[in-house]
Amino acid sequence: MKQLLTGNEALARGAWEAGLSVASAYPGTPSTEILENLALHKDICTEWAPNEKVALEVASGASIAGVRAIAAMKHVGLNVAADPLFTMAYIGSLGGLVVVSADDPGMFSSQNEQDNRLYAPHAHIPMIEPSNSQEAYDYIKEAFDLSEKFDVPVLFRMTTRICHSKTVVEVGDRVEHPALQYVKNVGKNVMVPAAAKVRKTILTKRLQELEKFSEATELNRVEYASDGNRRIGVITSGVSYNHAREVFGDTVSYLKLAFTYPLPPQKISNFASQFESIYVIEENEPYLENFVKQLEIKCHGKDLLPWEGELDSLTIAKAFGMASENVNFAHGLDLPPRPPVLCPGCPHRGFYYEVSKFKDIVVTGDIGCYTLGAVPPLSSIDTCICMGGSISAACGFAHADHFAKTGKKFLGVIGDSTFFHSGITGLINAVVNKAPIIVAILDNRITAMTGHQENPGTGRTLQGEVTHQVDLIALCKACGVKDENIRAIDPYNILETREAIRLAHDATEVFVIIAKQPCALIKSVMKARARMKCYVDQSKCIKCKMCMKAGCPALCFQNGQIIIDKTMCNGCEICAQICPKQAIMKEE
Question: Are 98 and 140 in contact (CB under 8 A)?
């Protein structure tokens, strides 16, 4: 049966057919849809984890117990999960264990462009890279088999283009994979130093066997030029293979590498020896190129191709002299710029608007929709490092004497899902080390940026079942924040928000503000607020444009008037509260 599937959908389908039992993940673009599609299969235990480290630890435990397991995450999530990843390379896998890393060349939704191929040699684990949805479907099955055969977790590296592009996939049926018998083995599964030393030797021998596999497997294959010429040989992998074929077609030969760690030195050398010129085509780091050069093979790669961003056919064509006026390669349209902004009715807007009035507050931001508080006209955020880093960074500012002596106040802003992910430890640090900072938890009742996934504060599981709802106020108290230093507010209420920030500003201890209002794009919220619209009474409006300083895209200045687009407005009334002449009102 054929289906048109994205890479994420195909991977999920293939994993299900391979007898997957347990899947855990933290949502992160471009990987999010993997778990959402796995959750459609009732014969798999699927769950959103608080963070990627927990997700991989859950999958690792399931693997040691003898069943097939998968942990999925975006590339920066693997940084969070690196601790269990490196140790599981020593322990190995009884049931097949696959770690999916969805990299983001071009940084479409990420704070960096790290190349997670480098994790494979660093952790000493095999790596597989598909180049389309069919391969994602086929190779995930191969990954589970390899994991069990070699007793090792497998890194399955996707990229944004593979995750989200659709190709036709020939699918099949699920094949049940019986649980393998777990036997207590302290020497294998308890990584104290004495056991780890023994396992390191086993790991080294395993890599030698994996290299032999890499030389023989059809995952690494040669495709010769249609006319048999030996002018150019292209070494490539992943989506770069598709772009290269768009440019060169069948006029050159390809060594397409899908099993990319360990790489096959003999196969690469044999291939390269047949051609006058070797091109290494890959995105981001010169991972393949460096290996090819270590084999003393002359080649062209990053001397012609960019180190940053996604590759496309036009970039490759220009780099290798294939572009001309007579040849048109697919390329992105020149669209007008569309600066990112908080959505109309976003509950974060009122909080940032009020914070921006306190000129002596330095705001350390975090990863989520609310990072857009850095964008004009709100311009409220000073820094943003990584997931869960805002509270800890605010502590760092507070402990920097030259800053503290200026009398400035430091505010770490973080979302509810991000707080559960990795912000709790920062709050504990602030309390224990007496950093007099403000912590603002913008609780919009969902994991919004990645498409509305449940989190520990929503009270529902991935399957929508009612479960325990973590109480943010109780959690903050448990971390040591005093009752009188916690304020739960409605960020749509400007006066209430302003007063909470003022109290926090004047506090001498850690002060937590919890801004509670659901994301404006949650379907039930949209339905409830569908008839809530604001309008401008033009007879009262003095055209001061104060309302527009909140940055709501529903407001615009057109033909000399302030206009509210009713198709966008959800009646949050932030603009009405800002207006000095009460010229903005809610429709009855």
Answer: yes
570 token code pair:
């959800």
Give the pLDDT band of residue 326 (cuts 50, 70, 90).
very low
29 vs 523: CA distance, rounded Å: 21
Reduced to 3 states, what is the DSSP secondary structure of residue 553? coil
Say what the pLDDT of residue 588 is.
73
Question: What are the b/e assignments for 123-151, b being 16+ CB within 10 Å?
Answer: bbbbbbbbbbbbbbbbbbbbbbebbbebe
Tokens of 29: 């673009």
Residue in the block written with tokens 């790290």 = 114
- Point out which residues pair with 277 in neighbouring strands: 232
| 442: Cβ contacts below 8 Å, ≥ 6 apart | 347, 348, 351, 368, 370, 413, 414, 415, 416, 491, 515
Residues in the chain, total: 588
Q: Residue type for 68, please? A: R
Distance CA 336, CA 515 (A): 34
What angle do the packed helices 348-355 and 494-506 form, to 10 degrees? 50
Burial of residue 338 (number of CB atoms within 10 Å: 0-12, 13-18, 19+): exposed
3-state secondary structure of 236: strand
249-255, long-range: CB < 8 A, 24+ apart: 250/225, 250/226, 251/225, 251/226, 251/227, 252/225, 252/279, 253/222, 253/223, 253/224, 253/225, 254/222, 254/223, 255/220, 255/221, 255/222
Which residues are paired to 237 by β-bridges?
257
Q: How far apart are the first and last CA of the chain?
A: 54
**DSSP letter (8 states) at residue 217:** -
Cα gap 522→338, rounded to integer Å: 23
**CA 64 to mean position of chain CA atoms:** 27
Tens of pLDDT along 244-269?
A: 999 999 999 999 999 999 999 999 99
Q: Phi and psi of 228, rounded to 5°?
A: 75, 10
Sheet strand arrangement including 69-74: 45-48, 22-25, 69-74, 97-103, 154-159, 127-128, 259-261
CA–CA gap between residue 512 and residue 172 (Å, rounded): 52
Q: Global pTM?
A: 0.93
The count of other CB atoms within 10 Å of the CB of residue 417 is 30
Query: Per the structure block, which two tokens stand in for 222?
Result: 């040669």
* Whole-number Å distance between alpha carbons of 38 and 43: 9
**Cα separation of 380 and 371, whole Å?**
9
Tokens 């995105």: give the residue: 283
Residue 201, C-beta contacts closer than 8 angstroms, at least 6 positions apart: none
